[in-house]
Amino acid sequence: MLGGKFEVCGVLGEGATGIVYDAHPLGKPDEERVALKVIHRHLLGDPQVRGRFTREVAILRRLQGEHLCPILDFGELVDPRSSDNLLYMTIPKVPGFSLERLMATEGPLSADRVVDIVLQICSALTDAHRQGVIHRDLKPANVLLRDGDYAFVVDFGMAKIVTGAGGTGTTELTTHNMVFGTPEYMAPEQARGDEPDARCDVYAVGVILYELLAGKVPFRGASPLNVLTAHMTEAPPPLSRPPSEVAPALEAVVYSALAKSPDERYASASDLARALEHARLAPNDVDAVSPRLPESNTVPLPTTRSPAPGDMPRDTPRWGGARWIVVWLLAVSVGIGIGVWLSLHTR
Fold first, then answer.
1. Angle, helices 248-257/199-214, rounded to nearest 10 degrees
2. SS3 assignment, position 326
3. Which of 35, 59, 199, 295 is most buried, with most CB under 10 Å away?
C-alpha cells in the first residue's frame, strides 16, 4: 500500500524521472488498474520541482487527443518508509507494452509497420503541440502499444518539470549521472542547452524512425557527452537496408527529420506526418517530401516586371542603356563629320 490511496501490485518500469508502479486505487475494483508514477526522491531536493510539478501536471491533465494518455490524478503521497512526501501522477494502465520492448523482441520492423506506428506518434505530438506542450523526452519507452499496434504517447513534459523551463538539464550530468531528456534521442539544440521548441520532438521522431528501420539508434557513444556531441557534429550513418525495403522517399524523410538545424527539419509533427504519407504513396518521389524552408531562409527570385514610371528616381533617364549607346554613337559620328567638313573647307 502506498500513501493510503493505492495498492501496489508490481513495478512497470523505471526511468530518469521516476518509477512506475502497477497499482489500483483503494476501494475500486481490481480491474481498474492504473500506472502510478512516483517522482524519484533525489529529484525533490530542488524546492522548485514541487511547484513546477503542480503547474505542469495541471496543464498536462487538460491534454486531449486520440493517441494521448490522460492524467487521471496527481498530488503528494506519504512514503511509509521515510514519512517523506512524494510526488505522484496516475494514468490509465495500457494493456500492452512499450515500443522499446517491441524493438527489443522483434528488431527492425517493416517499413509499412513503421509508418503506421510513427503516424500515430505524430498525431499525439500534433495534438499536444497545438495545446502548447512539448514532450522534450520522446523515446520508444514513452510510446505504449495496445493490441494491433495502437499507440499512446506518455510522459509529456517530465523533463521540463524536473529541470525547469529554461534548460534541458545537461548541467546536472556530473551530479546525477543523467541527462533530461535521453541523449540518444536529443536534438542538437537540446544538447547545446538551447531552449527547445516543437521541432526537438520532430528530431526525436526522426531518431525513432531510424531506429525502427535500422534496428539501432543513429548515434552511440561511451558516455552521454559522446552521444550529444555526435548529435551536434556527425551525419547519421546510412540505414543499410536495400531500397526494396526502405524506399528513397521514406529514407529522405528520415534524414530530413534528423537535420542538425531546426530550420531544415519539418516545421511540425503534422508536416512530418504528411511527408510520411506521401512517401508511402509515392516511394520514389524524394523531392516532394523535402521540408519547406522558412521564408527567412529562402532567396527571393529576381523580378521580371518592367519598372513602372513612378518606380524610377527623378534623375534616372527613362531610356534603356542600349538607346543611350545609339545616341552616343550618333553624336560621335556627327562630331567626326563636322571635323572632316571643317578640315576640307579651311585648306
1. 140
2. helix
3. 199
Contacts of 260 (CB under 8 A, 6+ apart): 188, 232
Count of CB atoms situated within 10 Å of the CB of 48: 10
Size (the chain), residues:
347
Task: Report the distance separating Cα 91 and Cα 154, nearest Å.
Answer: 9
CB proximity list for 346: less than 8 A, separation 6 or greater: none
Distance (Å, whole) CA 194 – CA 341: 81
Strands 143-146 and 18-25 come out as unpaired
Q: What is the pLDDT of residues 28-86, one digit of tens each?
A: 776 678 989 888 887 777 777 777 777 778 878 888 899 998 888 888 887 777 777 88
How far is residue 347's CA from residue 152's CA, in Å, rounded to a whole number?
Answer: 107
pLDDT the model gives residue 156: 81
More confident residue, 273 or 308: 273
Q: Is-catalytic flag, 137? A: yes
Radius of gyration of the chain (CA): 31
For the chain, list the domains and their CATH numbers: 6-92 (3.30.200.20), 96-292 (1.10.510.10)
Query: pLDDT by residue (tens digit) across 204-222?
Result: 999 999 999 999 999 999 9
Task: Quote the DSSP letter at residue 267.
Answer: S
End-to-end CA distance of the chain: 129
Nearest 5°: the CA angle 210, 213, 214 is: 75
Q: Which of 137, 155, 201, 271 is catalytic?
A: 137
Q: Left, alpha or beta for 23 (phi > 0: left; psi -120 to 50: alpha)?
A: beta
C-alpha–C-alpha distance, residues 27 and 44, integer Å = 29
**Distance of alpha carbon 265 from alpha carbon 272, whole angstroms:** 9
